[in-house]
From TrEMBL:
Protein name: Nitrate reductase gamma subunit
Keyword Hydrolase attached: no
Gene3D superfamilies for this protein: Transmembrane di-heme cytochromes, Chain C
Species name: Hydrogenophaga palleronii
Listed transmembrane segments: 6-26, 54-77, 89-108, 128-148, 187-216
Pfam hit, one: Nitrate_red_gam
Bilayer topology term: Multi-pass membrane protein
Keyword Iron: yes
Length: 242
């Protein structure tokens, strides 16, 4: 178990992150026509509106909540918030978002499996990744009672310390040994989702974050041209051959 523990929490994270980054880049470079969400909205809209909206609202909150909660050093907030208060906040806010996301994903999964038209046009990887996400959400909800039992916030501090050591290339998973099994399985499956990311429809998430660049792009300059007058030297289009 010591060898497995060391592999899954000290080595496996870097394997998953390497495949996640390099695999996404390779797919964008070689298979851009497959870089899409494969929406099935045209086949049937039933359950899609509620399922998709609830799922995306919940998953975005969970993603940023996990990122901020795990990667923010304790000294940033210890002056105005204790670890116990932060953990209770994570339980209530994350639990609410988890339930919302679970309901939405359950609707999407039911639609994919039990609608004959959608099931026939769905790739096996679509169903596979939805099932993995569903199991991951269930595991996340299972951890809530355990987190509530750690009222002093020590479990959150252990998880945050491990995550911060991973991103700063100082891996040390010794503190995770004493944690309950749902936390460990939840971490391993979460890293596995990053491993499978470049080979599934999840790559369209990159495009969603890429749209933020539109807020920072320069304005497009459009110059009008007077009709009926010959172009002048100052006209930027005068060099264009007719």
């Amino acid at each position: 178990m010591t060898t497995l523990h060391n592999f899954f929490f000290n080595v496996y994270p870097y394997v998953c992150l390497s495949v996640f980054l390099m695999g996404s880049l390779a797919r964008f470079d070689r298979d851009q026509y497959t870089w899409k969400s494969d929406s099935s909205q045209l086949l049937r809209k039933g359950q899609l509106r509620w399922g998709s909206n609830l799922f995306h609202i919940g998953i975005l909150f969970l993603f940023f909540g996990h990122a901020v909660g795990l990667l923010t050093p304790h000294f940033f907030y210890e002056g105005f918030m204790s670890a116990a208060v932060k953990q209770r906040l994570a339980i209530y806010a994350g639990g609410t978002a988890g339930v919302i996301c679970f309901v939405g994903l359950s609707l999407l999964l039911h639609r994919r499996i039990f609608d004959p038209r959608i099931r026939l046009t769905s790739h096996k990887t679509d169903l596979f990744i939805l099932v993995i996400l569903w199991v991951q959400l269930v595991l996340g909800l299972i951890t809530l009672p355990y987190s509530y039992g750690h009222s002093d916030g020590q479990a959150m501090l252990v998880l945050a310390d491990w995550a911060q050591r991973i991103v700063t290339f100082r891996p040390d998973a010794a503190g995770l040994v004493a944690l309950e099994w749902p936390y460990k399985v939840h971490l391993v499956l979460g890293m596995t989702i990053f491993l499978l990311f470049p080979f599934s429809r999840l790559v369209h998430v990159w495009s969603g974050f890429g749209t933020l660049a539109y807020f920072f792009r320069p304005y497009q300059v459009v110059r009008s041209r007077k009709i009926g007058l010959p172009p002048t030297r100052s006209d930027p289009q005068s060099h264009v051959p007719r």
